[in-house]
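User: Design a sequence. Structure:
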């Protein structure tokens, strides 16, 4: 046959993902290996040209196959549909790999408008491997009509695409142990994602979260903590929620309020088991309802006040949906729903209605319109009254820092070559290496920058004691006389540098007399057109060694396994790490022109905007290109006004940022409201366990989508199984 294409390719390469319900045509063709009654638009045929008829029949058959899959595909999060997607692709591969890769061939018949089979030629569809890999498949349609044969083909690359990682939590705990928080303040969401039963988290001393909270385990509350539900910092159109998979025990004042009017999908507290109070608790406020769900309630002690509906529904095990209200003062500015029995021992005011499936004891103590009290009621559990689901698990982390350090798979990591170079002797550079080059010492940088957001650029000069321009080790070999006392160190990421990987020498211990100020400037010019993130990033990595072994993906958990990671310990006092674009806006020229010293408070007028929308008069940083990757059994202790602008991915490490951080930082919300905080970190902190001290804030900014963190999680339940349609060919 003639291999010269007779027409232009009709499809450019494009990804078609099976993120949809099971495709009937795919099932009928791939699962049974039978092709029947493929509709053909016969108005395009011309019986006077046998070759043209054969070509049109073959191409229409092939395109009908491809187009039907595309037409029947629609986005889905349904687990059953995802399973069908994977099954369909697996069967496609089976058909292609049959007969040693020669594939599977089946005959096609056609139906006319009268439903009868029409003889417009004989067609065979073959699904076969293209080359040696079953990941590459060619689907061929070959039609013979009155002695003329034509063949067309679709070239397909099968793939399993893991959902890109989304980082929505300012602080996220991955470990299976509980934790205590003293004066912890979070702007953004917080989560404890390890679904291990029996964990207990404790909030003390005015801990506050300005966002959502999700945790697996129980929460014990004392000393006036606050959760202020705010719009999501990831998507301002979304609201916020509190989800606790087990028990909530309130022994001192606890406030859960909102800055938003209630709407479907947010402004609720969802407790998987029991709510117990022995002191004041308030939920919601006038005009800002917050609903509360639990499976058992024991309200006692002093006041309980809620604006919103209170729901007590049956749960697993011994949780029968019973409720006892015995607080000294208790008011529900909404309705009360109890699926079990209700026991009221002290006056309970309900402004709405009371619905109880079981019996009511102490009905006379309910202050409510008598006609609104319903005993033996049937609960609809629909709409607003439907109990939110507690997810079985959060997104699983598939790859760990060790994978980024050692993997040879470029779909997983981009930094393994730089990391391993520290151990094979090909990169012996340290900070002191750059200090030996006069071009990097006492470095002055002047750049035109739009400081006002108006497009007008002005020259900004900043000075540094030392400049780092490539991957190296941060060792303890710098001269204190030259580089102590708060030296400013510029890490300069560019197209020529690529990713800069800075290994922290194990045992690096810098006291307050050092207090280094690290400024990371990223001027790589290759930009992700979707997110605007620059291709290259700066990584600070643990000295975990080269004896790490990657033991593959666990078949049960879907997580990478590793061994041989060396333990590391780091201690910093007064360490500050800034993104350059934030640094030159945060401080005035008197600070920027110094090569040493504590930069002090941000200049008057600087407002940091961590939200997803622009707010007038504020600066909204881009996704952070500063990434801290700490391997298993690493411990970081940062104290004495340390501050980090960057993201920590340390799911098997301990991160203790016990510091009052950077003072005087003004932070805005999407409505333009402002608060001045002591700030420890701007980014996300993901750790096995996390420690904090002092009244300090952690502010959300997500990591760069071009960093290796984008590959860290997703999990088997979040995979989209599909194919890339590379091209059509006519032979």
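Assistant: Done.
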């Amino acid at each position: 046959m003639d291999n010269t294409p007779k027409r232009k390719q009709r499809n450019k390469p494009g990804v078609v993902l099976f993120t949809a319900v099971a495709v009937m045509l795919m099932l009928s063709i791939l699962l049974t290996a039978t092709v029947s009654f493929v509709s053909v638009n016969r108005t395009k045929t011309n019986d006077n040209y046998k070759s043209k008829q054969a070509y049109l029949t073959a191409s229409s058959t092939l395109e009908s196959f491809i187009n039907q899959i595309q037409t029947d595909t629609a986005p889905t999060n349904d687990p059953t549909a995802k399973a069908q997607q994977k099954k369909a692709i697996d069967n496609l591969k089976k058909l292609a790999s049959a007969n040693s890769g020669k594939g599977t061939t089946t005959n096609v018949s056609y139906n006319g408008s009268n439903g009868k089979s029409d003889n417009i030629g004989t067609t065979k569809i073959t699904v076969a491997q293209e080359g040696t890999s079953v990941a590459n498949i060619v689907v061929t349609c070959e039609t013979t009509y009155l002695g003329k044969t034509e063949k067309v083909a679709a070239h397909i690359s099968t793939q399993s695409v893991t959902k890109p990682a989304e980082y929505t939590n300012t602080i996220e705990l991955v470990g299976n142990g509980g934790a205590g928080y003293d004066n912890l303040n979070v702007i953004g969401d917080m989560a404890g994602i390890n679904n291990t039963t029996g964990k207990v988290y404790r909030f003390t001393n005015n801990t506050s979260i300005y966002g959502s909270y999700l945790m697996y385990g129980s929460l014990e509350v004392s000393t006036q903590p606050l959760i202020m539900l705010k719009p999501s910092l990831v998507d301002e159109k979304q609201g916020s929620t509190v989800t606790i998979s087990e028990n909530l025990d309130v022994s001192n004042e606890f406030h859960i309020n909102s800055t938003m009017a209630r709407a479907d999908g947010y402004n609720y507290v969802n407790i998987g088991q029991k709510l117990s109070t022995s002191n004041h608790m308030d939920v919601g406020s006038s005009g800002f309802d917050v609903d509360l769900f639990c499976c058992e309630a024991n309200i006692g002690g002093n006041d309980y006040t809620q604006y919103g509906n209170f729901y007590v529904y049956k749960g697993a095990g011994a949780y029968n949906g019973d409720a006892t209200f015995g607080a000294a003062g208790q008011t529900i500015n909404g309705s009360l729903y109890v699926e079990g029995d209700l026991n009221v021992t002290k006056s309970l005011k309900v402004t709405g209605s009371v619905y109880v499936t079981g019996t009511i004891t102490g009905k006379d103590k309910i202050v409510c319109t008598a006609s609104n009290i319903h005993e033996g009621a049937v609960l609809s559990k629909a709409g607003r009254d439907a109990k939110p689901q507690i997810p079985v698990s959060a997104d699983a982390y598939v790859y760990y820092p060790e994978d980024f350090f050692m993997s040879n798979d470029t779909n997983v990591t981009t930094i393994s070559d730089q990391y391993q170079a520290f151990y094979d002797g090909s990169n012996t550079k340290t900070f002191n290496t750059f200090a030996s080059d006069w071009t990097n010492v006492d470095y002055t940088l002047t750049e035109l920058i739009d400081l006002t957001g108006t497009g007008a650029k002005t020259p900004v000069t900043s000075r540094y004691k030392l400049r780092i321009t490539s991957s190296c080790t941060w060792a303890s070999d710098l001269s204190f006389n030259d580089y102590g006392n708060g030296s400013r160190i510029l890490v300069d990421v560019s197209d020529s540098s690529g990713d800069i990987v800075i290994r922290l020498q194990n045992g690096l211990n810098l006291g307050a007399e050092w207090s280094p100020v690290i400024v990371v400037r990223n001027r790589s010019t290759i930009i992700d057109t979707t997110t605007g993130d620059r291709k290259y990033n700066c990584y600070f990595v643990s000295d975990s060694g080269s004896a790490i072994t990657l033991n593959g993906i666990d078949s049960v958990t879907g997580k990478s396994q590793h061994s041989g990671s060396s333990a590391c310990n780091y201690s910093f006092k007064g360490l500050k790490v800034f993104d350059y674009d934030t640094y030159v806006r945060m401080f005035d020229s008197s600070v920027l022109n110094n090569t040493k010293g504590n930069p002090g408070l941000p200049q008057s007028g600087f407002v940091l905007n961590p939200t997803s929308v622009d707010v007038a008069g504020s600066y909204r940083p881009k996704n952070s290109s500063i990434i801290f990757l700490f391997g298993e059994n690493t411990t970081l202790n940062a104290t004495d006004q340390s501050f980090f602008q960057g993201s920590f991915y340390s799911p098997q490490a301990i991160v203790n940022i016990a510091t009052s951080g950077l003072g005087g930082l003004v932070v805005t919300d999407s409505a333009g409201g402002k608060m001045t905080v002591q700030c420890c970190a701007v980014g996300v902190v993901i750790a096995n366990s996390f420690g904090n001290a002092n009244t300090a804030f952690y502010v959300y900014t997500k990591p760069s989508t071009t960093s290796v963190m984008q590959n860290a999680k997703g999990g088997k339940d979040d995979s989209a199984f599909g194919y890339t349609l590379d091209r059509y060919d006519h032979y």
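Residues 50-71 form the longest helix (22 residues). Residues 1-47, 71-77, 715-721 have pLDDT under 50 and may be disordered.
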